[in-house]
Amino acid sequence: MSAKPLLLFCLLLAGRLAAQTTIEVPAATARLSLFPLISSTKQGLIVAGDFRLAPRLSADAGAGWYFNSPNLIDEKGEYYRGYALRAGGRYYFRRWFEEGIFHLGFETKYNNIRHFTYRQAFRQGQQYIELLPVHRRMSNYGASVRMGWPRYWGAQKRFVFEPVLGLGIQYFRVSRDLPPDAELLDNTSFFSFERQPGFERLVDVYFGIWVGVVWW
Predict the structure, then answer these.
(1) pLDDT exceeds cutoff 50 at 6
(2) Which of 24, 41, 172, 190 sits 20 to 30 Å CA-CA off 9?
(3) Helix, strand, coil share of the chain (percent; to 5)
């Protein structure tokens, strides 16, 4: 059997691997997450940026503010707000079958939410019903593995569009202020995203769309 086909395959593979070492990753970008702006559970403004540390490696950090929850806020004076923090890292690869790059990395997150609402509650062993102000505090933190496919377009490739997928684990810690004898009536809505007081661990499945600009 001739060794020429094997030699040709090795040369092509070596050329492909050599080409992969020259990936054009921007030195710094700024991005905005689109989904929190239209979410029905918690609306917010989340921004992030990544900064190149090496030809294929970058650090990623972000922050934001949640300002509303259409699913949980009904009356005047109620609010749902808090802050969000993000940090992680990315490693970039060149895609095999089409021009472009994708990244694989990790992200840690921390959200701190304050929720105020008015709720009906039984008092004194269900002797009567009273409308009570209810304060909830929720912290949410976790870590996930994420991958994304940034696409750069426009003059000098200054704009970026990036779908991101992620899978990880997240924790919720929720507390609520109520008088000792109060029993909240069941929420009358068909489905509620309000988490009950206590500690909870859940799988974190993430899909996001980010848009932004390349600084340099």
Answers:
(1) no
(2) 24
(3) 10, 60, 30
